[in-house]
Write a structure and sequence with these properties.
The complex is a heterodimer of chains A (about 600) and B (about 200). Chain A is of the alpha/beta class. In chain A, about 40% of the residues lie in helices and about 15% in strands. A six-stranded mixed sheet of chain B has the order 2-3-1-4-5-6, with helices on both faces. Classes of the chains: A alpha/beta (about 600), B alpha/beta (about 200). Chains A and B meet through β7, α11, α14, α15 and β20 of A and α1, β2, α2, α3 and α4 of B.
């Protein structure tokens, strides 16, 4: 897998510190490293958030060792404050910042194009096209970082992180350097404005040096027919699609190709030479027209009248990820001839589109969040409140799936920790609506503590439900400060959410088991009636992890004699282990899927559901 | 002899073992000295969501995605999921389909309808070169757990010569990918799949 290849590249480069907050599609980089951390003598950790992760890597790199930090696209926004200053300080040991963008998007809140942040920070950026590239260029990124004394942004997209390919293993570098941070306040202290101006000039000077690498054959390659009037400028995974189509349709003598691997700074001379020889040039890049914008600037400065095809010419889409089919269509436009491709039956595709029901991921059987939202909705009903009178702010995590039917619970989901601040904001605006924030345990540690403190200071009348399933579930069960162990499996202190809430001054703090429907409802009702900030921690281990630890209970079954077909068990829990049998008009539990949480049995009005 | 390009689409529901299946096939292709690409989307699909993965091997393979219509084999672990990915199917595609439906939550709570399996089969037959249908789910249940259904279908595909990879490599790959404690059940499932293929081909 691409992420494993990046991890391997870092190991071969002799990385000493590697850290991240988990985020799809970047998670497996640190996860892979955690498996060999002890053996290789690497400090590998899941940090509380991306900013902290970057600062840990930066502190290590100041002492001269090589360090890597990985994040999904929104993560680099969280880390951006640290990144801006890091560009001014620069680094001593190689520092590689992997940022994984998600065209599609498959699992990210926006289709953010993080390449602009390389422009903003003036940091060099490298983009691989496949896992093999990824491994080799990560190694080079460490070397470049040391040569330029700058952190390197290593930008990937989902189809690189999560695709697999043949990769050959290289030698592992042994670096025996004593880590030592040499004091140099003019460089590392941002308090002197004169110093900051000097460092700004220094950064621009280093950036100029990076151009030599950008223009080199290693980071900027010409392929195909260099004399053709038609050209393609390409970077990232689009190169893999292009390469395959070039072979398949024998296009290598019809098109000149400029493949750009270092995308900040751009190889401006190479680009300008390339443009000068072409009449039409197609730009292949996913997400924003980043290359397209910058290449048009070069064409303008050189006074070239080459026709640029890309997103702004409506040749390629701004939204969603590219595919071989999309690239094929763009190539056809460049060549002015139909390249074909397989004929699909439109009638079949249309009919299939009509017939196929949606299948978005539901919350798992036994998921404790099911119990939490059931209790919240019941508490609202029992207090005689209408749905629109209680605004439920959501946050990032599996529990965001509660926006779907049958729950239709959360009203918002923006970014890590946003639920609490937004809930407070609604109250400060003077709305008569109640405000509830639902936030996961790891999201709370990531960015939920500060808004909690803010809400307490300003006495916001809000209820915070922390859905504590003991682990970072959605990204594949990484530990957090409340889990009691680290990325490498070492025991660590269990930091309790209720202790933090109490220390911050919350007067109403309760802990309850979301499998206990009655008790959870009662506590949430009290919390909703409390004046000021109320915090309820709904604590129960993620069912998938519990299952793996052998904590699965005996399954439940529906007695068809007693079942009256009211569907309450399905409509209230949304549990994917319960199926509706249309012919019999009864519910049935698939026992192989059932986790044995018993929530369905607590809502059955005729006691038709019992444990096997 | 090595083939130039072979494209497999695996369509199913999170938890059915589609990702394990793609990893086994990819590993076997590596052992058979192929250039291999696997495209997966991970995260949010651990349980119960629609999941599709691509395995490609051959001399000329670079992209992790399969172009539309270019599947040589579609392994449909669930009928609706096979149909959801019909854009990868053309008259060169062979489909192997488990006919046992897993109804999504949207159907259970009554906001969507699950089509008749016959309707799905009719459409797939119109689109593909050949469709092999069988209740592999029942077969897996007979072996004790629905979790081995993926490997039964792999056994069938190898038994019916639907994948140009050696049985020896597939078995080695199963041993490399499947955790030790589930290995025996999976080897049994693989043999069961092969036998079903033999029986069906005879009749």
């Amino acid at each position: 897998m691409g992420n494993e290849a990046i991890a391997r590249g870092a190991i071969e480069a002799g990385v000493r510190v590697a850290t991240a907050y988990p985020g799809t599609p970047s998670t497996e980089i640190i996860e892979s490293l955690s498996l060999v951390a002890e053996e290789m003598g690497i400090h590998v950790e899941w940090a509380v958030n991306e900013k902290v992760a970057l600062e840990i890597a930066l502190g290590a790199a100041f002492s001269g060792v090589r360090a890597l930090v990985a994040m999904k696209a929104p993560g680099i926004n969280v880390a951006l404050d640290a990144l801006m200053s890091a560009a001014y300080s620069g680094t001593i040991g190689g520092l590689v910042i992997v940022v994984a963008d998600d065209p599609g998007p498959h699992t990210t809140q926006t289709e953010q194009d993080s390449r602009w942040l390389a422009k903003m920070t003036w940091l060099p950026m490298i983009e691989p096209s496949d896992p093999r590239d990824a491994k080799e260029f990560v190694k080079r990124a460490f070397e470049l970082s040391e040569a330029l004394e700058l952190p390197i942004i290593f930008r990937t997209t989902t189809r690189i992180n999560h695709s697999s390919a043949n990769v050959s293993l290289g030698k592992i570098m042994k670096i025996d350097k004593e880590p030592f941070f040499k004091k140099d306040p003019l460089r590392y202290v941002r308090a002197s404005m004169k110093g900051n101006r000097e460092r700004h000039a220094w950064l621009l000077k280093q950036y100029e040096k990076a151009r030599n690498f950008a223009e080199s054959e290693e980071f900027c390659r010409i392929e195909g027919n260099p004399d053709s009037e038609l050209g393609v400028i390409v970077s990232g995974v689009s190169y893999a699609y292009l390469r395959e189509l070039i072979e398949k349709y024998s296009l290598s003598n019809k098109i000149a190709i400029l493949r750009i691997i270092m995308t900040n700074p751009l190889p401006e001379s190479k680009i300008s030479e390339f443009l000068a020889k072409r009449k039409r040039v197609l730009i292949l890049e996913e997400l924003d027209p980043y290359l397209e914008t910058l290449i048009k600037k070069i064409a303008f400065e050189e006074g070239l009248s080459v026709k640029i095809l890309g997103k702004e010419s409506n040749t390629l889409p701004f939204v969603g990820e590219y595919s071989p089919g999309i690239v094929l269509k763009a190539l056809s436009e460049l060549l002015g001839e139909e390249l074909g491709g397989r004929k699909l039956r439109k009638d079949i595709l249309d009919k299939a589109g009509e017939l196929v029901p949606p299948r978005t991921p539901p919350m798992c059987p036994g998921c404790p969040h099911i119990g939490s939202y059931m209790a919240l909705k019941r508490a609202i009903r029992e207090l005689g409140l209408r749905e629109e009178e209680v605004v439920i702010f959501g946050d990032i995590g599996c529990y965001a799936l509660s926006f779907q039917p049958p729950f239709r619970a959360i009203w918002t989901e923006h970014c890590m920790g946003a639920s609490i601040g937004m809930a407070a904001g609604l109250r400060h605006a003077g709305s008569k609506q109640r405000a509830v924030a639902t936030i996961g345990d790891s999201t709370f540690f990531h960015m939920g503590i500060q808004p909690l403190i803010d809400a307490i200071q300003h006495n916001a009348n809000i209820t915070i439900l922390v859905l504590d399933n003991g682990i970072i579930a959605m990204t594949g069960h990484q530990p957090h400060p409340g889990s009691g162990y680290t990325a490498t499996g070492k025991k660590s202190p269990v930091i309790k959410i209720e202790d933090i809430a109490r220390a911050a001054g919350a007067k109403f703090v309760r802990v309850v088991d979301p499998y206990n429907y009655e008790e959870s409802t009662k506590v949430i009702k009290e919390a909703l009636q409390h004046e000021g900030v109320s915090v309820v921690v709904l604590r129960r281990l993620c069912a998938i992890v519990a299952g793996r630890r052998g904590l699965r209970e005996k399954p439940y079954f529906v007695d068809p004699e007693k079942c009256i077909g009211c569907k309450q068990c399905i409509m209230q829990t949304g549990c994917p282990a319960i199926f509706w049998i249309e012919d019999a008009k009864k519910a049935r539990i698939e026992e192989e899927l059932c986790f044995g949480c018993g929530l369905c049995s607590q809502v059955c009005p005729v006691n038709a559901i019992s444990r096997r | 002899m090595l083939v130039e390009e072979f494209n497999i689409v695996i369509a199913g529901v999170g938890g059915q073992g589609g990702l394990t299946l793609s990893r086994v096939i990819a590993h076997a292709a590596l052992l058979d000295k192929y250039n291999v690409r696997v495209g997966e989307t991970l995260g949010m699909s651990q349980r119960g969501g629609a999941v599709v993965s691509f395995v490609r091997f051959g001399q000329r393979v670079f992209s992790p995605l399969i172009p539309e219509g270019e599947a040589d084999l579609l392994i449909g672990l669930e009928p609706v999921e096979a149909l959801r990915n019909v854009r990868f199917v053309s008259d060169k595609t062979v489909i192997i389909l488990n006919t046992y439906p897993l109804k999504p939550l949207s159907v259970n709570i009554g906001i969507a309808k699950y089509p008749e399996v016959k309707e799905i089969l009719d459409l797939l037959r119109m689109a593909a070169k050949n469709v092999i249908e069988y209740n592999f789910y029942e077969e897996a249940k007979r072996l004790g757990t629905a979790r081995v259904m993926n490997i039964i279908m792999l056994g069938y595909s190898i038994g019916a010569n639907m994948i140009p990879l050696s049985e020896e490599s597939i078995l080695k790959a199963i041993k490399a990918v499947v955790p030790e404690k589930y290995l025996e059940a999976n080897i049994k499932a693989f043999e069961r799949g092969k036998n079903i293929a033999k029986q069906l081909i005879k009749t």
